[in-house]
Sequence to fold (883 residues):
Amino acid sequence: MPELDKTYQPQKVENEIYAWWEQNHLFHADEASEKPPYSIVIPPPNVTGQLHIGHALDNTLQDILCRFKRMQGYEVLWMPGTDHAGIATQNVVERFLASQGISRHELGRDKFIAKVWEWKEEYGGKIIGQLKRLGASCDWQRLRFTMDEGLSQAVREVFVELFEAGLIYRGDYIINWCPRCQTALSDLESEHKEVKGGLYYIKYPLASGGGHITIATSRPETMLGDVAVAINPKDPRYEGLNEAEVIVPLVNRRVPIIKDAYVSLEFGTGALKVTPAHDPNDFHLGVKHNLPLIKIMDEEGRINQAGGAYAGLDRFAARQRVLEDLEAQGLLEKQEELNHAVGHCYRCATMVEPLLSKQWFVKTEPLAQEALNAVATGKSKIFPAMWEKTYFEWLNNIRDWCISRQIWWGHRIPAWYCEACDEVIVARQAPASCPQCGGGNLRQDEDVLDTWFSSGLWPFSTMGWPAQTPTLQKFYPTSCLVTGFDILFFWVARMMMLGLKFMGEVPFRHICIHALVRDAEGQKMSKSKGNVLDPLLIIDEFGADAFRFTLAAFAAQGRDIRMSFERIEGYRNFVNKVWNAARFAFMHAGRGPLSHAEELAPLLEERWIMSRAGQTAQAAGQALDEYRFNEAASLVYQFVWHEFCDWYLELIKVPLNDESNPARQAAARARLMLALDMVLRLLHPFMPFISEHLWRQLPLKAPTQSFSLMKAAWPSEELAPYDAPAEAQMRILMETVAAVRNLRGEMNINPGLEIEVSVVLQEPGLKQAILAQAARIKSLAKISEITFAESAPPNAAAAPINGLTIYVGLLGLVDVEAERARLNKEIAKMQKQAAQSQGKLNNPGFTGSAPPEVIEKEREKLAEAASRLQRLEANLKSLLGEN
Fold:
């Protein structure tokens, strides 16, 4: 038998175990297998990425599901890959080149792209190795990259098909523009941040010269491109206004006054300046009223020639100059401080500029309707269901998707322009000549596609589409998508739209949305706050298993995870508990033969532990199927720590150490190995390293023995049959022993003293069960004698359990007066605690503002205080002779 180290050292085990898994191709999915399929596609991390706490949670949950489903007999494909992350990667490589004094413009497009590929091969993909340290059992033989040739072919095919179907078009539109990254951003890539600004009230003179209209704006520099002033036709403030035009100050442009119900009656003065080339809402007003488009700003955020005297000024410098000039001309009526949300680039945090631009768009409304129906009809289910409302709201209010980006790294748009006749040719391969005029002078579009366009094809492009591969036929649609709520729209909805369009089927049956990992105080982790936890450092210190179990144990649906080193340390203790239990088991297994298990009837504790393993597996399995990871982890923890370690190992010591009965000893050793086998199977999805390491050394396994624990069966009725009589008898034993031990503690009875116990039965049938286990109960609870009584004896502390009440006589065991004083003090303490909790729960200010988990914690404190108070008061009555 192996002799384990006294303490578990994950650093010695984890790398060796993972290498062994990979060498034996245990993660590889076989598309020819007759097993039922189960598949997950990994949310592809950026090729620039480093493993962060969100990745750790996301991939731990996926790995738990994949390992669980393998053990259930599924052919599991966990498809891995990385995303080329257009803007992020280009920024990284540009900075890298800048440190060497090189700019991308000096290199030119082709050489710059070659440099990015060089960088990707040398530095990209580090996160793959980091995911392996976490224990991720991805099919690394199928590793994909969103820019590899197969996926590039899929991207071109989708673009051309959507274009030919009229769902991709090119046109003028207001987009979010990042002057720093020099590219368009989708609405989702523009992150709104609260900034301090101003609201400026400007007088627009009526064209007739008889007065003015005051408008309020937070971006006065854009007035240089104003083409109208809009008012609400129902606004009583402008009821008598008969003027048709106003003069735009500073540029002296005559523009019409238009009426539209869109204009808010509540904001500002009720008059709206209309700048269609620099505001998305104004753009729609401009289209509706057939207004001209005047673009007064260039792509670097500077005023262009259309801005007249302000040409060449940066947008913020122009704002200041415009305000000074308005004030000098007496046209700045007033200004107010304004805190408002303004879009910023999600990559570089530069304030975005709404800008009129010619871009490529996907017409999303027809695609969105199908994606909406898929969830509404249950073809795809979202867990937890609370996220369905958000999903529906976004799809019901979706705008066309701007898919072109003005960068070099990415999938170049497959569109060519004929220099001779301006024909636009969209094709899967570069055309040799213009189909319209036959000219050969063609220029490919300079833009690339939004990164999310290629990753939107991920569930089927990674499996070989557009070819109908065996992998695609076996594993599409995927079984589940596990992801954070923050990319529900970026990625999930787009995969749904594109999967339905090109595969005719949803890309995933289930969508599991997990929450954020926060610090111990519930604060979002950020480098600026200094509260970021590095998963790699956690793994170095505590091991991957402890970290994974912590993440799973707190991954309650719809609730953010509060992570701290203390919590991880607590589950490292659990890992050590498992290790020590295995050391105990292996030590006894090495003392003699493992036999007679078939010859001798199993003892109560042996029947019970196998029954509990089966019941735990069933309940934990159901929880995992419903993505209640915390409940599954809790069930396994309860079984391993309390039932296996605290009870079974304690009870089994008697036959293991009974030298007078070698056959019973051998049978106990064999059954101990089988029970440990069940423990390791239950632990494996959560704690794969230690469970595999120990399982490989088991001298005796169940009949379904396999090469690796990864391929072993999840405990079933066949392996661990339900034994109702054994569970009932053990319940009586455990509750009785626990009740006596609790009474000893509550009444300060010397733990070394043997005591006498009286039992009053409410269910007479339990007497036989108590007598059958009397020897074990006496041994475990240090009881000298158990008697049965019709009523409560005097001066005895009571502990009611199901069907009976246990009494311990106190005379001669405790100092009655001192104990009364102690109990009164404890009662007062519990009353105060209960009153405090009740006060908080009765306070609407607390229940209305505190997080749900804090409120629930307070309810638990109140319930615990009430229960403890009840026991203390009962024990005080016992001391007072009031039984």
In short: The chain has 28 helices and 29 strands. The chain has a mean pLDDT of 91. The radius of gyration is 36 Å. The first strand starts at residue 37 and ends at 41.
